[in-house]
Structure formats: C-alpha cells, structure tokens
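Need fresh eyes. Consider my entry:
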Amino acid sequence: MTEQTDPKTSPATLKKVISAATIGNFVEWFDFAVYGFLATIIATQFFPSSSVSLGLLKTFGVFAVAFAMRPLGGIFFGILGDKVGRKSILSLTILMMAGATTLIGLLPSHASIGVMAPILLTVLRCLQGFSAGGEYAGSVAYVMEHSPNHRRGWYGSFIPVSTFTAFASAALLVFALESNLSSEAMATWGWRIPFIIAAPLGIVGLFLRWHMAETPAFKAMAAEENLHSHSPLSETLRSQGSTILRLGAFISLTALSFYTFTTYFATYLQVVGNLSRPQSLMVSTVALFFAALACPIAGRISDSIGRRKSVGLICVWVIVTVLPAFSLASSGSVLYAVGGVLLLAVGALACGVVTATLMTESFPTRTRYTASAFTYNISYTIFGGTAPLMATWLIDRTGNNLSPAFYLMAIAVLAMAGGLALRETSGISLFGEMPTNATSSRIRTREKSLAL
C-alpha cells in the first residue's frame, strides 16, 4: 500500500476539479427536475386521460422506469471507471445525458404520433437513467479523490450544491415560462425549452471534462496494480457486501427525502395544498436555493463531528419534522408551505452531503466506482425513482394526505440502523485498502491535529 495519505492538490486545481465535476451533475439533475416540475403538462402531452391522477401515475411511472436502468449504468460505468479511470467515463456520461435530454425536447406529442410518443419518451428516459447511473458516483469519487482527507465533507458538499442549484434553476425557468406564456403556448412548445437547453450545457461540460486530469488515488493504484486484475462485480459484491447493505440502507433515506422534496412536493403543493403552479414553483425555488447555500455548512459539520454522528442527527431530524412539514404544506398558505418545505430541505440536503462522503470513504480505490455506483443507484431506484409514484399511490389508496410522511419516517428508521452500523470514516486515507475502525479513529485524530 502506498505511503501517501493525503492528496496534495492546489486550491486552484481543486476549483477546476469541482467545476468539471459539478457541471455534469448539474445537467443530470436539471433534466430530472424539469421532468418533475412539468409532470402535469407532460401527462397531458404523452398520457392523455380523463383522470388527472391516472395521467400523473403514468408520468411518474415513466420516471420510475428510468431509474431501473440506473443500477445497470452504475455497474457498467463503474467497472469501466475502476479499470480505465474516472476522467474518460465522466466525459461519456455527460455526452449521453445531454443528448437524451435534448431529444426529449424534440419529441412529437401523443396527438401527433399516438402511442409511439410515450414509447419514445420511455426509451429516452431509460437512456438518461443508464448514463446517470455512472454520473453521480463518478463525480463524487473524482472530487473526493482530489480533496484533503480532513475536508472531504466540505469539498464534497459542492456536488449536492450543484444538484440543488440544478433543481432551483429548473424551477426558475419553468416559473418564468409559466408567467410569460399562455397555457396553450406552454402546452404546445413552452415545455420543450428547458429540455433543449441541455445541449449547450452538455457541450460546455464535455469540454471541461475532456481536459481534466486523473485523480491522485487512481494514479497511485494504477502505478501499483495491474488494472486488468480489477475485481469483477461478483467479487466486489462478495468483499464489500456488508458495507453495501449498510450504506444502501442510509442512502434509501437520501433518495426518498431528496425526491420527495425536489420532485414530488411541487405536485403535492398544487394537488393537496391547492396552490397554483407558479406559487408552488416559487416555494420550491426558495427552498432549493436555501438547500444549495446550506450544503457547505452541512459538510463542515460532518467533517467536525464525524459521519456516524451526522447520520444519527439527520435521521432524528427527519423523523421529528416530516409530519409538521407535510401539514404545513397542505395548509393552503404560501407562507406555511415555505416553512414546511424548508423542514424537508434540511433533512434532504444533510443526507446528500453525508452520502457523498460515505460513498467514497466506505470503499477501496480499486472497487470504489463500481461499489459506490451500485449501492447508490440500487437505493435510488427502489426509493428515489418510486418516491412520486408511491406518494401519489399512498394518498389515493388511503385518502390520507399525510401518508407519504409516515412512509418517510419508516425509511428514516431503516436508514438510522444501517448508517450507524457503518464504521467512522471521517479523515481516513483514500489510498489503498480501507483501514479498520481503530485505525480510522487514529487517522482522523491525526488529520485534525495537522489541520490545526
């Protein structure tokens, strides 16, 4: 194992690393945000139905189906990323994501080509899901493997910052379109604009990523090992299976809280809270910008108190605040709705920041991309991609507008059990194999002393 324990990356290089990583992440989540915010319009364009709920269920069903491709993409790109490096794979994922998103904006509606319209929409969403499967884990690993050991929470927090900024930008754009276009124009061509914007964003992102350097941890591994000896998926699952299960349990809360907050809640505010579409988008935008600004604070706190304490505090926060959040959001008041969404935002952003660090710190370099992408995408497929669908179904079946809140509380309990079963990883070295619990504690203490 290499003696190097901390990457020596200059602040200027770190800024470039973060810029290259976050722009691809921005494109990925911008698309998913737009799809959620425009769900009611997409339902009428691709799934015409006499029932509003049925149209939404079909629209969110396609949203969920796309997530089924994410684990496959995570395995495919993860194995390649562990073999050939992070840089080239991240260039490929942003190209695929931006291309598929742009094509969605050009699709004919159901009125034009009939059943082929939802079929093509589903195919493109699956392509997005496949490429997204390798995007997030790769971006996180790329930033983390460049970051100082004792500040990974801080630097890694900028990945979730780009996620929430993407959602906020999507909400602002949709809000501007809704405010300046008639309902007919919005339904005919206005909804296409946010998807087509992905084209220039993808070109910029591809340019930045093509000029990136490989990470110090991967280069160190490549110098010591034969890359062709990289362990296959079966061996990765065998050697990292316990960690994958524990981390996956915590990421289940990250996925559910994130998509409940960012995607489903805009619809909840309209259908249950009786707010107009512009009002719901305004409320969501305020909360999203708050989340983006607060992510670095959550990163600093996580670096200070450690990952396991962060996990415990986050889960308790979600369990305590989720019922008040849904109650406030269903009140019909814009002011109360803002308060409710902010309560959800705190849990979602804190989950995202801690998940980013744990994904990288929990696995050794030679399997990091594969194991983290697999864990992340399985959890997001089961709990994230189905979040809007489950929330809509629960309310429809139970008649209780608070039923999604109880579902979120139950998952928070599962997440606490899995997250607290992980070892403390704050401050450990990312070079070589992962140290034991005792070693992790000693390294973290040493790193903090050096930082002072």
